[in-house]
Amino acid sequence: MSNPLLTKHELKLKEALSAIQNRGFYSAYPEVPSGKIYGETAKKDGQVAFEGYLGNEFALQQGGCSGTIGSEVSPYGVPINAQYPKANSNALLEGISRACPAWRNASVETRVGIAMEILDRLNKRSFEMAFAVMHTTGQGFMMAFQAGGPHAQDRGLEAIAYAYKAMKDCPTETTWKKQVGRDEFVTLDKTFKIVPRGIGLVIGCSTFPTWNTYPGLFASLVTGNAVIVKPHPGAILPLAITVDICQSVLIEAGFDANLVTLVADTTEHPVTAELVERPEVAIIDYTGGTAFGDWVEANAGNAVVYTEKAGVNSIIIDSVEQMKAVSGNLAFSLCLYSGQMCTTPQNIFIPRDGIETADGLMSFDDVSSAIVKGVDWMLSDQGRANEVLGAIQNEATAERIDASDGEVLREGSSIEHAMFDGARTRSVKIIKLEASQKEVFEQEMFGPLVYIIATDSTEQSIELAATVAKEHGAISCGLYSTNNEVTEKAVDAMTLAGVPVSCNLTGNIWVNQSAAFSDFHVSGVNPSGNATLSDMAFVVGRFNIVQCRTFVAEPAKVEA
Amino acid sequence: MSNPLLTKHELKLKEALSAIQNRGFYSAYPEVPSGKIYGETAKKDGQVAFEGYLGNEFALQQGGCSGTIGSEVSPYGVPINAQYPKANSNALLEGISRACPAWRNASVETRVGIAMEILDRLNKRSFEMAFAVMHTTGQGFMMAFQAGGPHAQDRGLEAIAYAYKAMKDCPTETTWKKQVGRDEFVTLDKTFKIVPRGIGLVIGCSTFPTWNTYPGLFASLVTGNAVIVKPHPGAILPLAITVDICQSVLIEAGFDANLVTLVADTTEHPVTAELVERPEVAIIDYTGGTAFGDWVEANAGNAVVYTEKAGVNSIIIDSVEQMKAVSGNLAFSLCLYSGQMCTTPQNIFIPRDGIETADGLMSFDDVSSAIVKGVDWMLSDQGRANEVLGAIQNEATAERIDASDGEVLREGSSIEHAMFDGARTRSVKIIKLEASQKEVFEQEMFGPLVYIIATDSTEQSIELAATVAKEHGAISCGLYSTNNEVTEKAVDAMTLAGVPVSCNLTGNIWVNQSAAFSDFHVSGVNPSGNATLSDMAFVVGRFNIVQCRTFVAEPAKVEA
Fold it and tell me: What is the ipTM metric for this complex?
């Protein structure tokens, strides 16, 4: 059952299958935005393509739409004004249901081949995607290229690999032969058929529209489901481009464009809740805030739900070799995309009596001030500051940061952007708290706000970080300790709370990073989400296997 | 990380792992109740052991109990009166939570070895279990031995094999090395730890207390969870014996007996709902009626829920070679355990214009009467009738059958039992309906009641069977057709409705049967349940994997 598209991408699939088995380093799509890799005119072409969308209608090949909708505003102040087809749910779902049978009956190889071709075309358009992601999310260009392009594509391929593996885990046919007497057997021919659940709904977020959406999109698609992509109203364009590519590849392969559809909406007239409650929707992938995520989990009816909600992430500083290497590393983690990553640290726990270093005891204030200085240095160059911080996606984030107060160690006011006058920016605000102020730091303060919290001891730091994770969710934790016993205790406590710990990161690797094929993103253990990107559990609920058994008559016995 | 118990059972584990990959015939525990296999005195010993429980206190090694409870009555009229420890939920859960850490931290090999030792001891006590199952469920002795003993043990091993495979799918450690410059690398050591969800609750049913309970029990246990076994108040003894064996093996291996506990109750004072709503319960396996199953699914909070509820199963007769072979096969399926299997056919759809046979057209009435005669013959010998029918587990079932009326083709009154005067028995009642009476036959009529339904055509038969399955659930479907096109249509329609079809069964194989390691029991597609015994989806939700990554400093460069 070979398929030309699968044959084309077979090597990559094999590598991906091997990568998910070993979970070492692997990347299928180059992360360096280089003309040598993507073509010398790729950046310019991508920019032109992006600018072509501004103020224009974005055409898609799906049915069930009339009129247009869209009200995206770039956090950099660039007017977007793209208008997307406005879907009518009933008409859309009718079109989707007509598209499903052929897709459901296509072979695993056909579906996987098509999905990998989609990823390949997405990869070729990574610069165009970078501009689209940058101007909807507020990410800096480099991050928008990597996280919005190749890293998102890697996450998509990872999910495809798990889905392929899961579907191939069961044979398509077998013979069951049971001895029921001395010379007597009963034989049944059995077949096993993959039955997709039906229609998947993928709800995107405003900060990582592709990275958080591709796993669910591709996992549902290759397991035989149709997929409705519901972008955040603030970050539609990256997913419109994605859906457009999906539809083109599907049509070229002889399938119906309605297998992957876009439902755009606006903040004023949201449609997500209506889609979640539709009985036709059998799978839901959600990334976004906790309140609405909880609502989705509770109101999804019989749909299988995979969520990534919010988390309150911690850094535990117990002891270090050199504070400078630590504060430099932390500074980048805190500044990157103005703290708008679900993995950005919020709470930094430091014993009030100070910490051990290779150069002796360092006081709490000195550690705090090293972190503040690290951030100061990171943002001291305007070009670097603009690129690292990017812009603030949502006005509410800026307002939340501005409104927060306490013992401010570093102000977080807006900074000028060298290229975009109208950019909504904030610097990183750092506030000092006491361990007793749990009711403050246990709240998720999404955006560039950092709490440095004075604790009685590292033991208390661990206890607070773990408790906050269990109660409010957490996706990342950074630990700095030169003591094996402390490390073991911290890792044990955080592991039980479902938080992956990163130990003693310095240099070019940061706690915020989550590498496809190696790092499991979100554990499913704490309130930050019930699903992991990606593992077997992320894919096996998207289809069922239904068998058929047929009696095989024994050949008539021949007398000797 | 070898383990003496795993070493002891390693061959069986390997065979089971191979069996779930191929899904051909495999059985780990002999189904023949023979003294040659189980020991010449095994049956007598089993009976003595069973009789020892009657009227006595059943001791368990778990904590958190005071007083006793139990009100089982044998459907055969034998007084049981066993009294089980009465659990106090708070005290029980405290004891369990103290037991968890050591179990959670034990190796996969240790947990799997212990679980397989439990199965081995259960197997050795299959005769004792047969008597316990027979006298709580009303099954005939042979069925109680096979379904309650070796077949249940096979289902348990199947779940263990999937869980083992799922846990071994992720490495425990890896090295991630990424090139970040011409000669520059970032290296992280990563570890991956299995974090069980916590406490599993397994809710048993009254008809197959072990067969339907072992998969969830063993899947939760080997993935590191503690398990609370909550038997149906009418069928406690088989699970009390099971829990007793679990506790003994756990203690011998140095673990806490509270890792597997029994919570018995009575119909008058049920405790299941309270347990379902406990936040400590993180996994629920449920087998039983649809109404309470729906309640469990809706009220389980954040627990992962696996259900097998009820189904309305169909036989579709389109055309046959020889009706006699078909009616003989069907008769056994209809009579076995008085129709109290979740796989027993209820609705037999036959075109009112008759069917094709090798001997020409056979009228609807002749087909109906062949089925009635088949049942008559099956029950014509009292010994055979008693053994095949067994007894009616629940008085409500008997009342339901007695109350149903219409065009009765065969009465279903009670029949004498040769060995047990007080047995609650019913013969198989057969009623003729029209296709238009969907509101009657779409209801599940659990027990020995069969509807023979006259349809306009096989096409209508298929449509009705599929619709009833989609709307009310179905676990099995038998198809008789000599026409390939009809077979394909029927299999397609039923597969989409999530019902495995058995085609043209005659001889020693019946539609009710579901063989571990080969047949997926319940598809998860229709309302008969959301889980399958057993597949990857049945095990992967019982644990999560949480990683830890540690920065590895690059060795200092040596200048040449």
Answer: 0.96
